[in-house]
Amino acid sequence: MTRLEELEKAVDSLPEDEYRRFRNWFMEKDWERWDRQIAEDSRTGRLDFLAEEALEAREKSELRDL
């Protein structure tokens, strides 16, 4: 059995209250990783194209209010 399969089995066997706590913990960890990835992508310029697209759209008056 792989490590992942062991984890899946363990999660499946959790009582509802422990599963809820685990789910909340896991979602927080996931968001933390996402935040770190976005920060890294921003720092290295991988997201610069988004600003460029927005500036071009503004110049062409293609922006709309949200």
Could you name the ranges where pLDDT drops below 50 across 5 or more consecutive residues? none
Binned strand content = under 5%
Rg over CA atoms, rounded to whole Å, is 20 Å
**How many separate helices?**
3
Mean pLDDT, as a whole number? 96
For the largest beta-sheet, the strand count, sense and barrel status come to: none
Helix content: over 70%
| Distance N to C terminus | 49 Å
* Backbone shape: elongated
- Strand-and-helix sequence, N→C? HHH
Number of strands: 0
Protein topology:
Blueprint: H1 3-12, H2 16-43, H3 48-59
Name the features.
66 residues, single chain
Please give a structural write-up.
- With 66 residues, the chain is mainly α.
- The protein has one domain.
- 76% of the residues lie in helices and 0% in strands.
- The chain is built from 3 helices and no strands.
- The longest helix has 28 residues.
- It is elongated, with a radius of gyration of 20 Å.
- The chain starts with a helix and ends in a 7-residue tail after the last helix.
- The model has no long low-confidence stretch (mean pLDDT 96).
